[in-house]
Amino acid sequence: MAVYAVGDIQGCYNSLKKLLKKVKFDASSDTLWCVGDLVNRGPDSLKTLRFLKSLGDSCICVLGNHDLHLLELAAGGLKYRRDSLEDVLDAEDCDELIQWLRFRPILYHDETMQWTMVHAGLHPNWSLKKARKRARKIEAQLQGNEWKEFCRQLHHVKFPIREPKKADPTRLLFATAVFTRTRYCTSDGLFNWDVRTGESSNYRDRAWYAHKRAKWHKQTHVVYGHWAAKGLVKDQAHVLGLDTGCVWGNRMTLAKLKKCGGFKIVAQVK
């Protein structure tokens, strides 16, 4: 029995299947963790969703920003120029796939493995307990009757750069951005949503996982995706970054996770 984690798939179905074939993945005994961004930009978002859904409990997916964008489109939201999601939206089983996607977690934690999975990152001032609490509130929103209105808010929204107070209606949007869009922030939780590639010019900014006193550091190890510009991040004490940019012509990466933060990169394919 093995637990594998795969980087951002983004509709690259053939690459995913090649990876799983390389390790002889067996859905009857193995588990596949997907770090989010299952769809978009790649050629086969529909095949990817259908396949992952068919794996049942053998597949655990967290939601990424592109997955939330698909939910937004299903809710009547606006398209981006480079979207490649028409095959999902036009499919006869679209409603079933959207329903399945809505009920995927924002954060997944395995107590036995001592691994936590999110798409992009965590707040340096959040403990694991606080992060899980924030994630549950987002999940409740996505699974509730007002999910469409919530998802439509995510399009071109100006996310707060610091966590708002409890009564602020943008607090949930901020938490969503932390989990699905984070790259750079300061040690006291000031988030930079503007830098997507290259280094931040703010001397206080660090990669979200690089703040030495982050509260979650002593509580878990984190596997994540989202940051293709960083590529494979495997030299940090507390995290494993798996977005190696397959959709941009690079490779898709599969890691075998072990207890207490251990891992091994077992396969990479184009």
UniProtKB/TrEMBL annotation:
Tell me if NADP is a UniProt keyword of this record. Answer: no
The enzyme's main class, written as a single word, is: hydrolase
Q: Name one GO cellular component term.
A: cytoplasm
Gene3D superfamilies linked to this entry: 3.60.21.10
UniProt keyword list: Hydrolase
Quote the catalytic activity from the record.
P(1),P(4)-bis(5'-adenosyl) tetraphosphate + H2O = 2 ADP + 2 H(+)
User: Where does the Calcineurin-like phosphoesterase domain start and stop, copy by copy?
Assistant: 1-163
Q: What is an example of a GO molecular function annotated in this UniProt entry?
A: bis(5'-nucleosyl)-tetraphosphatase (symmetrical) activity
Is the Hydrolase keyword given for this protein?
yes
Pfam entry (one): Metallophos
* EC code: 3.6.1.41
GO terms of biological process kind: RNA decapping
Please give the family membership noted in the entry.
Belongs to the Ap4A hydrolase family.
Function, as annotated, reads: Hydrolyzes diadenosine 5',5'''-P1,P4-tetraphosphate to yield ADP.
Q: What is this protein called?
A: bis(5'-nucleosyl)-tetraphosphatase (symmetrical)
| Organism of this sequence | Mariprofundus micogutta
Q: What is the lineage of its organism?
A: Bacteria, Pseudomonadati, Pseudomonadota, Candidatius Mariprofundia, Mariprofundales
